[in-house]
From TrEMBL:
It is found in: Nucleus. GO terms for cellular component: nucleus. Gene3D superfamilies: 3.30.420.40, Actin, Chain A, domain 4. It comes from Thlaspi arvense (Field penny-cress). Residues 368-381, 493-502 have a biased composition (Polar residues). This is Actin-related protein 5. The keyword Nucleotide-binding does not apply. Transmembrane segments: none annotated. Keywords: Nucleus. The lineage of its organism: Eukaryota, Viridiplantae, Streptophyta, Embryophyta, Tracheophyta.
Length: 746
């Protein structure tokens, strides 16, 4: 399991981590029953970009193996930053906020460059190994990549010597240790080539007389990480609605379980394109969890009757409430009318001069206003009771008499009025005109409502006579009006310059403007030239400023008025929604099509949750031989062997035969099925006819590098290949540049 450290300041960080991790390590030691090793036994570390392996020299298995990653999330409860090394435990990670801190590696490609993260990893590894003292009093053999930069090597030596106080350190290449280990077991010879497809890079190193010749080595920046990432991308593009399920870890499992190398990539692709039986047998399926959607059962007749009864009951309640409200309103209006009539009767007994003082407390200014109010309340009461309206002649006579009493100056000539009376006359004319306009508008609305009710009644009668014919007719009308509205929108947007159904080319901006907008554009373009080429005197006259009124956007009211076709379209749409449950408005269809979510024509079925892994099985590992499939313009595995042979300083044909007769594959990617056969056939294509080509896979491509390093460190001459603190402080970085171990001791 991963170990967590409490967040601490940079000062004393190492001491705090050691103290906090001691109880955890002591618990591990009780569970695993570690042997007590003397301080002279070296510690062997295989520092790979994917996995970190550490153990004691002379053993055949590493004691601790974990992923070489570090993550520093915050605890959700306390907000404290903690450090998690190795694989992530889902049960542990639910207590941390990982949104701002993802897994990080100390490697850039295959070179260590983040030594702060490397320190966390070494702390964790030493604690799990049981070396929990203040000083690591054991020599260390640690692996590195081919031709590791001296800066990375010196920083690693500085970390081991000054932070952990190790007595001696030795550096070796992981692929070389794997080759020497398999040479001890007779799988390869002294002269040969080791091809190591790793996590982020692939190396090819030639061996001559048991020693690696680094001048002939070559590297390609592609490895198992790129294969997994390519598989993840292909599945996410193939099944976009399941992209959240294709995590990097799941893609890694699918690659290890189903991936293989095709003997001939082109012919293998052709089989899957033709859908042959062999391709069907090689296809794998991954069924995701799927729950069938609930089946909608149509309501029974009893349920329909029950809902209808409920609706009828609710409607009855609403009608009763409306009737009670209407009765209450009629009572209020009757009381008001009785009080007004009583006031009129009282007014008849008052003298003319005392009328203003009598009405001052009632809120009415004159007798005419009081009688007008009585007339209005009477009309409202008759309307509320549902009684017929008064005859038009009587209402017109009453209206004329009321107008004469309310506006006495209307019919008086102007020459007979004083200036004050002329002002009152103009005010009376304005009030009368406004009142008549409101009455006409109200009458027009009433007529429109009556016409609308009459039309609705006629349509309802037609629908009852022949429902199917009425529905088809409504659909045809809707389609016709919709086409007219769309055509108007297209003309307004793109102009009218068309040729049949095809547009004649680009449409100018002027053709997309309305009439008022085009008029404003004309005024703007011609205003500067109306004065001629003389002095610019625009604005010197008052009429010049009328131009701004003409250019105002307020004159677009006519263009912005709702079109009659649009109103008719809205009416037809609402009517179709009432009588046709399958009707869908065009606006809703367009909104569904333009929404951010992918429009699903049908609900997802069980087949949609079945992930088909066919051509992806061999297409992803193929990038090891053709990196240009993912945009990396470098050579593949088969060409790397030929490139290593050409780089050797020897010009000996027999040596080339010996090298190609002992090609060892090691590294995690070499476990992919079909790798050995494909590499052998690729080498035959670049070598002369009749050349001896023999490719073997390491006994354990993942652990042979550590086992070879363990056997090398267990040799009594190991310390001769290591350098101590004295060498580090005395010889410095230049000596590290020339440092190289001798593998023939193994």
């Amino acid at each position: 399991r991963p170990i967590t450290y409490s967040g601490a300041d940079d000062d004393g960080r190492r001491q705090n981590r050691r103290k906090l991790s001691m109880p955890f390590v002591s618990r591990i030691r009780r569970q695993t029953d570690y042997n007590v090793f003397p301080s002279s036994i070296p510690i062997v570390i295989d520092n790979g970009a994917s996995y970190f392996r550490i153990g004691w020299a002379g053993e055949t298995e590493p004691r601790v193996v974990f992923r070489n990653i570090v993550q520093r999330p915050r605890h959700k409860a306390t907000g404290e930053t903690v450090t998690i090394v190795g694989d992530q435990d889902p049960a542990l990670m639910k207590y941390f906020d990982c949104t701002r801190s993802g897994p990080r590696s100390a490697f850039d490609s295959n070179v260590v460059y983040q030594f702060e993260l490397m320190e966390y990893i070494l702390d964790f590894a030493f604690d799990r190994l049981g070396a929990n003292g203040s000083v690591i009093d054991h020599p260390i053999l640690i692996t590195e990549c081919v031709c590791n930069p001296v800066q990375s090597r010196s920083k690693m030596a500085e970390l081991l010597f000054e932070t952990y106080g190790v007595p001696a350190v030795a550096f070796g290449v992981d692929a070389a240790f794997s080759y020497k280990y398999n040479q001890l077991h007779g799988l390869c010879k002294k002269d040969g080539i080791v091809v190591c497809p790793g996590f982020t890079t692939t190396h090819a190193i030639p061996f001559v007389d048991g020693e690696p010749v680094y001048k002939g080595s070559c590297r390609t920046n592609i490895g198992g990480y790129h294969v997994t990432d390519y598989l993840k991308q292909l599945l996410s593009l193939k099944y976009p609605f399941h992209s959240s399920r294709f995590t990097w870890e799941k893609a890694e499992d699918l690659k290890l379980e189903h991936g293989y190398i095709a003997p001939d990539y082109a012919s293998e692709v052709r089989k899957f394109q033709e859908g042959t039986k062999e391709a069907e047998e090689k296809t794998r399926y991954w069924q995701l969890p799927w729950i069938p959607p609930p089946v909608e059962v149509p309501p029974s007749e009893e349920e329909i009757a029950r809902k209808a009864a409920i609706r009828e009951k609710q409607g009855q309640r609403l009608r009763e409430m409306a009737e009670a409200k209407r009765s209450s309103k009629i009572n209020e209006m009757e009381n008001e009318l009785r009080s007004l009539r009583f006031l009129v009767n009282q007014l008849d007994q008052v003298e003319e001069d005392d009328i203003p003082s009598f009405l001052s407390d009632t809120g009415y200014a004159s007798r005419q206003e009081l009688e007008s109010t009585v007339s209005k309340v009477t009309q409202s009461l008759r309307k509320a009771r549902g009684e017929p309206k008064e005859e038009p002649d009587e209402s017109e006579e009453n209206t004329d008499s009321l107008n004469n009493e309310k506006y006495p100056l209307m019919n008086v000539p102007d020459n007979m009025l004083t200036p004050e009376q002329l002002k009152d006359k103009r005010r009376q004319i304005f009030l009368k005109t406004t009142t008549e306009g409101r009455l006409r508008a109200r009458q027009k609305r009433n007529e429109e409502e009556l016409e609308k009710e009459r039309r609705i009644q006629l349509e309802e009668e037609r629908r009852r006579e022949n429902p199917e014919f009425y529905l088809e007719e409504m659909r045809a009308q809707y389609k016709e009006v919709l086409e007219r509205v769309d055509q108007k929108k297209r003309l307004k947007t793109n102009g009218s310059n068309t040729n049949g159904n095809q547009k004649t080319g680009g449409v100018g901006r002027g053709e997309r403007l309305s009439a008022a907008q085009r008029e404003r554009m004309r005024l703007l373009t011609t205003a500067a030239f109306d004065r001629g080429k003389g002095e610019d005197t625009f604005g010197s006259r008052d009429e010049d400023w009328q131009l701004y009124k003409l250019m105002s956007k307020d004159h677009d009211e006519d263009d912005e008025q709702p079109d009659s076709d649009e109103a008719e379209l809205a009416r037809l749409s609402s009517r179709l929604q009432e009588i046709d449950p399958t009707f869908v408005m065009k606006a809703e269809e367009e909104s569904n099509q333009t929404s951010g979510e992918a429009q699903r024509v049908r609900p997802l079925t069980e087949e949609d949750y079945k992930i088909v892994i066919g051509v992806e099985r061999f297409r992803c590992p193929e990038i090891l031989f053709h990196p240009n499939l993912v945009g990396i313009e470098q050579v593949g595995l088969d060409e790397m062997g030929g490139a290593s042979i050409r780089r050797l300083p020897h010009d000996d044909g027999e040596l080339e035969e010996r090298l190609t007769s002992s090609i060892l594959m090691t590294g995690g990617c070499s476990l992919t099925p079909g790798m050995k056969e494909r590499l052998e056939s690729g080498m035959r294509m670049i070598r002369p006819c009749g050349s001896t080509i023999h490719v073997v896979r390491a006994m354990d491509p993942e652990l042979d590098a550590w086992r070879g390093a363990s056997a090398f460190a267990a040799d009594l001459n190991f310390l001769r290949n290591a350098f101590t603190k004295v060498d580090y402080y005395g010889k410095g970085e230049d000596w590290l540049r020339r440092y190289q171990i001798r593998y023939n001791n193994l």
